[in-house]
Each structure stands twice: as C-alpha cells, then as structure tokens.
Amino acid sequence: MAKQKIALLTGGGDAPGLNAVIYAITRSCLNTLDCELIGYKFGYRGLYLNDYIPLTRETTTGILHKGGTMLYASNKDNLFDYLVEENGVMVKRDLSHVAINNMKKEGVDVLVVLGGDGTLTSARDFARKGVKVIGVPKTIDNDLASTDQTFGFDSAVNIVTENLGRLHTTTESHYRVMVVEVMGRSAGWIALHSGIAGSADVILIPEIPYSLDKVVDKIKERDERGKYFTIIVVTEGATEKGGDAVVGKVVSDSPDPIRFGGIAAKIAHDLEGKVEHEIRSCALGHIQRGGDTSAFDRILSVRYGVHAAQLIKEEKWGNMVCMRGSQMSYDSLENVIGSKSKLVDPAGELVQAAKLLGISFGD
Ligand code: F6P
After folding, report:
1. What's the pLDDT tens digit per position in 176-217?
2. How many Cα atoms occupy the beta-carbon half-sphere of 178 within 13 Å?
C-alpha cells in the first residue's frame, strides 16, 4: 500500500505553540504511521499555489520551543472567497477546486489545518467537499468556546505579566498613570489573567464596559493611600459605557477585517486633567505573540499535536482537536464552527477574586 501523505498548514495570525504542534504531529505520525508529510506555506495561499516544503525529522528539528510558525501564516486567503484579478478588476471567486486539484496532483490524502475561526471555517468547507480534514484550534485570545484552552494564551499572559513588571518600576518612579493595551479582540482573558498576575490596579475588559469616573475614583483612592501611581490594563476591544470599540485598522481583504487598537491612547487622553498625574499609554501589540513559547504552551501544543495524529490514525475525518477540562478530546468541525466566542463572565470567580483584591474594573 502506498504511503499516506499528510499535509499541514497554519492559517490566521500566528500563536506561540504552532511550531510545537507541527513538531508533535510530524514526529508522532512518522513514528506510528507509514506516511510522509508536507507543509503548505502561508496558509491556504500555499495550497492554492501548491507551494510546500517537506516535513521530516530533519526539517522540523529544533522548532518545538520557538514562537511563530515555520510554515508562515496568512489571514487573508479564504479560497472559497478568494480575491483575484480579472481584466484589471479585483473580484472574489470560489477557487477551492484549485486547492483540491493540487492535493490530488500531489497525492495528499489528509489535510491538517491549524487555525482560528476563519481558517477552521474553510477547513469545514473543505471537509464538506470530501477532503479528509483534521482541525487544530489556535488563538492567543483563548476565546474559542469549542475548546477550554488554546495554546499561545499562556505565552501571551506571561509576556504581558513580565512587561507589567517593567512598566511598574518606571511608572512608580514618575508618579504616573500608565494605560497598557493588550490583545484579545472582544475577550478580556489576556487582560484579566495578566492584570491579576502583574498586579494591575485597574483591569478594563470588553465584557464590562467602563465608566471613566470610576477609573478616576480608583486613581484618587490610591493617591489618598500614598500610592502615587496606577497601572491600568485594557483589552484592545474594551469600551466605555455607551461607547464603541476603537478601531485601529481595517484589513479589507481579511475575512475578519477589523483590528482594534488605540483604546489605551484614548483613555490616557480622556484622563488628562482629571487626575494630578502625568499619563502615558503603551500598546504591547505583537510583542505578545513573539519570542519563545512558554513551557505550559509547549506541553499543551504537544498534546494537541499528538491527539491530531491519533485522529488521523483512527480516520476521524472532519473533526477538530479540543480540550475538555484537562483531557484532550475532539468535536466535529460542523459543531464547532459558528459557536459563540468564549467571553469572561463578569460574575465569574476570577473577576470576583480580582475585585476582592481591590482591583477596579471601572464598573
Ligand atoms: O486573534 C489574535 C490576535 O492577536 C488578536 O488578539 C489581535 O486583535 C489580532 O490577532 C491582531 O491581528 P494582526 O496580526 O492581523 O494584526
């Protein structure tokens, strides 16, 4: 019987842990199946252009700890709605058949897709067209309802926590207020976890719209206690009560075009004159996705990867690996796509614990 050919791709924004998943899938497939593996470059674009590299023990050596993705990633290339030029005009076309033909031509039997919402929606659509697909979810935002924890989140929380420590010393030295913007889109997980771990005084998350007056109250309360500095952590998608999220950029050819950005600068501006401090803002941005993967995420990613290989072995096509409690499991892509985002519960245990510590949520 011919060797099974397994192709991997990484779509959407990168997340620490992707390389560890690639490593784990490659190693465990090579060790348990009669197979060869390839990796399409730049997500679905590589599938469209038939641009790939071999995934072997040699090409994947030394990648487990590294952030980013050795396969590169793109969050723009939805092949079911692909932007192409026709007679000098850009139009959107369903070019999924090109990808399917490329896989047939290369003898690819299985497609393993590592990605977030958008990437996995296409994975489901390829499964509907008869492709043997396995999905692996990723996002640093940890906002996928279909899995209890995504890799990349712990790394991002560690990076933010470390940077809050750095910002503490300079903020305190100048008696300032520092507003620190973190990622997470419309989910406050990164702000909540890093804010607690990094001893923030105020945590502002999209799930709890804030009142500027309450933030001012907190700064003044600290002043009265002789704590002449305040650290505010804010999720990029947070909103003031009755206000809108601040859009930093629109990536028009992305399936999810809105990029939040600028809320920290807005809060710093709005606080001006309301407190007796100099105010600064700092957006941590893509630093949160860079560098090495945390030890926790390396282990989690290995578990995701090994479980994906297990699903391949058991021929459980059309499924996505997920984590339920502390166990690795799987669910059908049909079920998981379109499920609502997992958001912070304002009445939940962690928010209440933070409040008991004296952290303000601006509510
Ligand atoms: O979803 C992950 C994420 O890092 C968000 O937290 C952030 O809003 C977005 O991606 C940034 O995307 P990009 O890499 O396109 O700027």
Report:
1. 999 999 999 999 999 999 999 999 999 999 999 999 999 999
2. 25
Domain with CATH 3.40.50.450 in the chain: 4-151+293-325
Q: Could you give the 3-state DSSP secondary structure of residue 84?
A: strand
Within the chain, which residue ranges are assigned CATH 3.40.50.460?
153-290+345-356
Question: Is 345 known to be catalytic?
Answer: no
For ligand 1, whether the C-beta of 185 sits within 6 Å is: yes
Does the pTM surpass 0.70? The reply is: yes
Q: Is the CB of 75 under 6 A from ligand 1?
A: yes
Fold of 153-290+345-356: Rossmann fold (3.40.50)
Between the CA of 250 and the centroid of ligand 1 the distance, in Å, is 12
Structure-token match 């926590």, residue found: 161
CATH code of the domain occupying 4-151+293-325:
3.40.50.450
The number of the ligand 1 atom at minimal distance from the alpha carbon of 249 is: 16
**Residue of 75, 259, 260, 342 to test ligand 1 pocket, by largest number of atoms within 8 Å of CB:** 259
Q: Is 160 in the pocket of ligand 1 (CB under 6 A)?
A: no
Going by pLDDT thresholds of 50, 70 and 90, the confidence category of residue 223 is: very high
Listing DSSP states for 119-151 in one string gives HHHHHHHHHHTT-EEEEEE--TT--BTTSS--T
